[in-house]
Specification:
It is a single chain. With 136 residues, this protein is an alpha+beta fold. Helix content is 18%, strand content 45%. The protein contains two helices and eleven strands, in the order αββαβββββββββ. It has helices at 2-16, 42-50; strands spanning 19-29, 32-39, 53-60, 64-68, 78-79, 81-82, 86-89, 94-98, 102-103, 109-115, 128-134. The strands form two sheets. An eight-stranded antiparallel β-barrel has the order 1-2-10-7-8-4-3-11. Strands 6-9 form a two-stranded antiparallel ribbon. 29% of the residues are buried.
């Protein structure tokens, strides 16, 4: 059983990219703050270089907040499924915070990381301005 869990964890890391050990971000808003652990891919490495940033986000389909980044990020592997807490990239500059689980159409999303705090703070209608910076 333990071996099966180890194998599953390894497959999950290969699917989403390895977590960047030192790279965590803080996402702050008037609704609260959450931290997220970033995966290691070209998009997240580029995102980290732009921090700190402010992103104006809007609710989309009652499952996510979306907003445009100041610059496009490099392409990375995409997937269609996401879970509550997933940080993603739809287009090259389209930042997404998912507060519900689901599936997107092709071509899928680039996974940037996973929120480790209570992502439900974003589960409300209306726009929100978020500040993204390195977590200390």
């Amino acid at each position: 059983m333990r071996r099966l869990s180890s194998i599953a964890a390894g497959v999950a890391l290969l699917w989403t990219g390895h977590a960047m050990a030192q790279d965590r971000i803080l996402i702050s808003s008037e609704w609260g703050n959450v931290t997220a652990e970033l995966v290691d891919n070209a998009a997240t490495r580029s995102l980290v270089q732009t921090l700190p940033i402010t992103v104006e986000m809007h609710d989309h389909l009652r499952q996510e907040k979306t907003g445009n980044l100041p610059a496009a990020l490099p392409e990375a592997a995409r997937q269609r499924d996401f879970s509550s807490g997933t940080l993603g990239l739809w287009g090259p500059d389209h930042f997404v915070i998912y507060y519900r689980s689901g599936r997107v159409p092709q071509p899928g999303i680039v996974i940037l990381g996973t929120v480790t705090g209570d992502v439900s703070i974003f589960d409300r209608p209306g726009p929100i301005s978020v500040q993204v910076q390195h977590a200390r």
